[in-house]
Specification:
The protein is α/β, with parallel strands linked by helices. It is built from nine helices and eight strands. About 35% of the residues lie in helices and about 15% in strands. The radius of gyration is 28 Å and the shape is globular.
Length: about 260
């Protein structure tokens, strides 16, 4: 049995098909209007795994993998979402995820990337991880918990249940009950998400913070120039007053100093 000071090896496997639906919900239909932050999500998984297994304070290594529901389009001219793929891959890479694209033969099915099952099992079989965390709602992965159990690796399932209206049509998104029942541990992530709204003052965030543009008067030089330009168009009643031209308009500060 590993000691509390030994390294805890966590395998975090993220189903891109589920994440696509989750992000769509929180961005378009939820009050947050934001996407999940990959780096923050990975950090939350690390901390939760430590607490779940009673290994607080021990060093943790997180092996993070993202399984894309689409194939990799190398020719952007052939893909309407090529740029989006590149941006997503860059975000995932910066957060420490390895990205796995779907096989061409499976892409027309529009579902989860099933390569996740075999890869996760191999990590367990070769004893590369102590616990596996799966973020998914899809029943296609229901064979994975039992296979991991045979290798002595517990599985923590991060699932989501939510509903919203798309036009007049109610949409229900639920974690597959079979997958949930077979998993050793389950976390209702819709409840966790409510604990971490996207706020700048928050100690921890699970979502990307909204863009906060700089105030217009943040540039002192720009503000000064705006005042100068405004002074050129400001009419006055007393032409003889110092600092005003013959046409009754205020001189710019530079011209006023010249008399």
């Amino acid at each position: 049995m590993p000691s509390k000071l030994s390294v805890l090896r966590v395998g975090f496997f993220l189903d891109g098909y589920t994440l696509k639906k989750v992000n769509e919900y929180y961005l378009k239909h939820h009050k947050y209007h934001s996407r999940l932050d990959f780096r923050a999500l990975k950090g939350w998984v690390r901390d939760y795994a430590m607490k779940l297994l009673g290994r607080e304070g021990c060093p943790v290594e997180v092996e993070a993998h993202y399984y894309h529901p689409y194939v990799r389009h190398l020719d952007k001219a052939e893909s309407s979402f090529g740029d989006g793929q590149d941006r997503l891959e860059k975000q995932l890479t910066l957060a420490g995820f390895e990205v796995h694209y779907n096989a061409a033969k499976d892409v027309d099915k529009m579902g989860p990337n099933m390569q996740l099952v075999e890869d996760a099992y191999l990590y367990a079989y070769y004893h590369k991880i102590d616990v596996l965390v799966l973020l998914s709602t899809q029943g296609q992965y229901s064979t994975l918990p039992e296979r991991l159990k045979r290798e002595g690796v517990p599985m923590l399932l991060l699932g989501w249940n939510f509903e919203y209206l798309k036009g007049d049509t109610p949409i229900y998104w639920k974690t597959d009950p079979g997958l949930r029942e077979l998993s050793g541990y389950y976390v209702a992530m819709e409840e966790v998400a409510e604990m971490y709204p996207p706020k700048r003052a928050a100690e921890k965030n699970l979502f990307m913070l909204p863009y906060n543009p700089q105030p217009e008067n943040s540039n002192i030089w720009k503000t000064y120039l705006q005042k100068v330009m405004a002074s050129l168009d400001e009419p006055v009643a007393h032409k003889e007053k110092t600092g005003y031209g013959k046409n009754g308009y205020r001189k710019s500060p530079a011209l006023a100093r010249l008399g």
